[in-house]
Write a structure and sequence with these properties.
This protein has 329 residues and is of the alpha/beta class. The protein has ten helices and 13 strands. Helix 1 links the parallel strand 1 and strand 2. It is globular and about 55 Å long. The structure holds uridine-5'-diphosphate-4-deoxy-4-fluoro-alpha-D-galactose. Uridine-5'-diphosphate-4-deoxy-4-fluoro-alpha-D-galactose (UFG) binds at residues 77, 79, 117-119, 141-142, 170, 188-190, 193, 205-208, 219, 221, 259, 282, 285, 289.
Length: 329
């Protein structure tokens, strides 16, 4: 039986496919390639180019393949865009998930692991953030991801489907093989933007606000390596296969780094001075997001391997240095 990875040509999806195949799993990837890249799909995975909002295409796939469980990454994920174009997020993320669940229920596929986000919490009441903390998203992206969690919960009650929602903090880094890495167009994430400076594609990095209530005034985030995230999906799938009940897990390192600290680490890793300039705050950025991942460690047995920011940024740099334009030749 095979595992279906929706959005398996995207950043976290492609890394998860590599880990699944390394673990000996049979993998089917489906992606509409709007933000994903065909080159990121592992050559041993069977690839379907389809949009999850296309019920007919999903039904055809479920009929053709013997799918044991689904890992669902297929969603729009830019916070800023979700504020200027919220309906795109309702369409792709919520409507897309609704169609997917309809098709899964119709075909008796009853296990799903899916990408959720720290953005479901909004401005945290305290850090580190626990899964039981208040969820009050401050952007439409987080709102749609939280609604996806709720949709799974209701569908579970009605149809017996079981799910695990993984709430990622700040995904970063690249595969150790150097074959796949982070590639977004446009790029909005801090580490790849910083690395565009030593790569000669950007003169300086903008620091979005230095008047936050943090020790150096810049925002603090919990950076977690993409391969560690990928491993968590495999553990979550195994948990469901062993009969585990619906669950939600935070995935982070539990250590926060400020924007200035990340820039400093990138200077050390690349040997480039990386000029930085303070610019206005970006709307909707919480001052501090740090995960408690104790639950993922105790329930799933998750053991993140990359707990050092230097190693994480080095792995990102290896990829960006060799692929300054991502997957474009
Ligand atoms: N930042 C800068 N300059 C830049 C880009 C980012 O200072 O040029 C800052 C941001 O203001 C933020 C930090 O760097 O404080 C990290 O920003 P990212 O855009 O890399 O990541 P976010 O924390 O905003 O977003 C990530 C995920 C989202 C998810 C969110 C959860 O990318 O999908 O975490 O809060 F929703």
């Amino acid at each position: 039986m095979a595992i279906l990875v929706l959005g398996g040509a995207g950043y976290i999806g492609s890394h998860t496919v590599y880990e699944l195949i390394d673990a000996g799993r049979d993998v089917v990837v489906a992606d509409n390639l709007l933000t994903g890249f065909k080159e990121a799909v592992h050559p041993k995975a069977r690839f379907y180019q389809l949009d999850i909002r296309d019920r007919g295409a999903l039904d055809t796939l479920f009929q053709a393949e013997n799918i044991e469980g689904v890992i669902h990454f297929a969603a729009s994920s830019q916070v800023g865009e979700s504020m200027s174009n919220p309906l795109k997020y309702y369409d792709n993320n919520l409507y897309g998930t609704m169609v997917l669940l309809q098709s899964m229920v119709a075909h008796g596929v009853d296990k799903i692991v899916f990408s959720s986000t720290a953005a479901t919490y909004g401005e945290p009441e305290s850090v580190p953030i626990l899964e039981t903390d208040r969820t009050q998203p401050t952007n439409c992206y987080g709102e749609t991801k939280l609604s996806m969690e709720h949709m799974m919960s209701w569908v579970s009650k009605a149809h017996g489907l079981r799910y695990v929602a993984l709430r990622y903090f700040n995904a970063c880094g690249a595969h150790a093989s150097g074959k796949i890495g982070e590639a977004h167009n446009p790029e909005t994430h801090l580490i790849p933007l910083i690395l565009q400076v030593p790569n000669g594609q950007r003169e300086k990095i903008s620091v979005f606000g230095d008047d936050y209530p943090t020790p150096d005034g810049t925002c603090i985030r919990d950076y977690i390596h993409v391969t560690d995230l990928a491993q968590a999906h495999i553990l979550a799938l195994n948990y469901l296969m062993k009969g585990g009940d619906n669950n939600v897990f935070n995935l982070g390192n539990g250590v926060g780094f400020s924007v200035n600290e990340v820039i400093e680490v990138a200077r050390a890793v690349t040997g480039h001075p990386i000029p930085a300039e303070v610019s206005p705050r970006r709307a909707g950025d919480p001052a501090q997001l740090i995960a408690s991942s104790e639950k993922a460690k105790s329930v799933l047995g998750w053991k993140p391997q990359y707990d050092d920011l230097n190693t994480i940024v080095s792995s990102a740099w290896n990829w960006h240095k060799a692929h300054p334009h991502g997957y474009e030749k």
